[in-house]
Amino acid sequence: MTFETLANQGQTALYGSLVSSIGPKIREIRKAAIKESLCGFQQVEHRMETVALIKGMEFINDSKSSTLNSTWFALESTSRPIIWILGGVECGNDYTTLRHLVRTKVIGIVCLGLDTARIHDAFEELDIPMIDALSMDEAVQAAYYSGSSGDAVLLSPACPSFDLYDNYEERGNAFRKAVKNL
């Protein structure tokens, strides 16, 4: 099995696949069985899920990423220039831990939610365009119109969703619907 086969599933899935293959190998399960199970892995909803490719822009639903750590993996594993949709219930996040990745990978930020002050404080000095949005439709449209072919619009909120949505699934479904409505 090639690294590229696994890497096409995304960085988070790659790490999980590599870790999950250790146990079966220790138990002497055949390599073919391990390969078959890893290659047949189906993408999980709301976790680095490609929703659509529109005019060369990839729309990625990572609504499940409600922590800085999971958002770090999403940003790190996205190879295209990123227009990042983030925000939600502010939990005292130290967004500065993401500053290096944001500086190198993000070309636009859409702050979604009722309280976006900490996001602005963390990233304003990077000179990356920032837009506030109070609905997913507004956020997706802002991201779409500020991007171009070859970019990725990544919903990876780094926060719980409870300011606008009941849970991350509802937020992710709202993202899918907004993308389909473009």
Count of separate DSSP helical elements: 9
Main sheet characteristics: 6 strands, mixed
Question: What portion of residues belong to β-strands?
Answer: 15-25%
Strand order of the largest sheet: 1-2-6-3-4-5
CATH superfamily of the largest domain: Mur ligase, C-terminal domain
Roughly how much helix do the residues carry, as a percent range? 40-55%
Q: Cα distance, first to last residue?
A: 38 Å
- General shape: globular
The CATH topology of the largest domain is Protein-Tyrosine Phosphatase, Chain A
Second rung of CATH, namely the architecture of the largest domain: Alpha-Beta Complex
Tally of separate domains: 2
pLDDT averaged residue by residue = 86
The helix-and-strand class reads: alpha/beta
Q: How would you describe this protein?
A:
This protein has 9 helices and 6 strands, in the order ααααββαβαβαβαβα. Helices cover 42% and strands 17% of the residues. The chain has 2 domains: 37 residues, no CATH class; 132 residues, Protein-Tyrosine Phosphatase, Chain A (Alpha-Beta Complex). The mean pLDDT is 86. It is of the alpha/beta class and 182 residues long. The termini are far apart. Strand 3, helix 6 and strand 4 form a beta-alpha-beta unit. Helix 8 crosses helix 9. A 6-stranded mixed beta sheet has the order 1-2-6-3-4-5.
